[in-house]
Amino acid sequence: MPDASQLPFAALILGLGLAAGVILAGGLRMTGLADRIADRTGLGEALVGGALLGAATSLSGVVVSLSAALDGRASLAFSNSVGGIAAQTAFLALADLLWRRANLEHAAAELANLFQSALLLLLLALPVLAYGGPDISVFAVHPVSLLLPVLYALGLIGTHRSRQAPMWQPVKTAETREDADEEDASDTTPTSRLFLTFGLLMAVMGLAGYAIAQLAGELADRTGVSASLVGALLTAVLTSLPELVTTLAAVRRGALQLALGGIIGGNTFDTLFLTLSDIGYRDGSLYHAIGRGDLFWLGTGLAMTGVLLLGQLYRQKDGPAGIGLESVAILGIYAGAVALQAVAG
User: Fold this and answer.
1) pLDDT by residue (tens digit) across 31-80?
2) Which positions ≥6 away from 201 have C-beta within 8 Å?
């Protein structure tokens, strides 16, 4: 792409819009593919949503954080990751509004999603420890960054095992939507072709993410807006659009475990942005180059995930305005965080 510093301001905004459109369209196409892959492979909506769809729709965000880190923009790289987690969790509350039959967290009861929510809380706690601990690194990479992918991989194994041989089962009610195999018998598309199409969409979305990173960085430089604010409220939201689209589309299809698993799994995968960003950031530990504003969004993500986990455990059937109290709380936390960050600048 052309040098962003040479583009007029209007071109920066247009470029961001076009890249967001590419990400939006790719995410929508991925939802149907992921649902078919879940049925075809027998892995289930929660696991495919959490691992495959969650990782794929997060690819553009990965590219943004890594590109920002390579350019020495530690705050943008960090806040893009944790800000995306907060935004995507808020999307679940919007999806709850779409599913009018019952509270989404009640209807999509699934042990795998509970397991991944708890895993996400653990993964988000590690950067807090790194931020508050001594400034240590190995080849300019903090040990926490090396630990994150190990725990993520172990978490995926644990998620799969909890689904195959669950030690806990959610109580089934009339509103519970089970993960049923709904594959169309007339669909003769080879499974390999489904995966190939999925991979091509990932590549296109990755390129769009790179464009967003370059354009957003230049936008922050020209406007003087803090990198933390740009990362948490601009790049994070733009690169999280696939999660919004795939979540709403999955709910409309009745694939509730895929919707919930896609958000939680995508958030879990997003913690790996920090590992890649720390590797790309060559001036020492990423966690000691960020500011209080970045840590604020990390705390916001922790609070919202905690509320989501409690909502899945409590499983309220109905709530105000047709959504669960946890969705109201999640939207309230996010709106409050946005307001506070905007005031702080």
Assistant:
1) 677 777 777 776 665 566 656 766 676 777 888 899 999 999 999 999 99
2) 26, 29, 30, 33, 56
Q: What are 107-162's pLDDT values in tens digits?
A: 777 788 889 999 999 999 999 999 999 999 888 899 999 999 999 999 989 988 88
Give the DSSP per-residue string, 200-224. HHHHHHHHHHHHHHHHHHHHHHHH-
Alpha-carbon torsion, ordered 148, 238, 344, 288, to 10 deg: 20
Q: Give dist(CA 9, CA 18) in Å, integer.
A: 15
Residues 159, 115: contact at Cβ < 8 Å?
Answer: yes
Q: Domains along the chain?
A: 8-168+191-344 (1.20.1420.30)
Q: What is the rounded CA–CA span in Å between residue 301 and residue 117? A: 12
| pLDDT (0 to 100) of residue 279 | 95
Rounded to two decimals, the pTM is 0.81
With beta carbons less than 8 A apart as the criterion, state whether 77 and 216 touch: no
Cα R_g (the chain), whole angstroms: 19
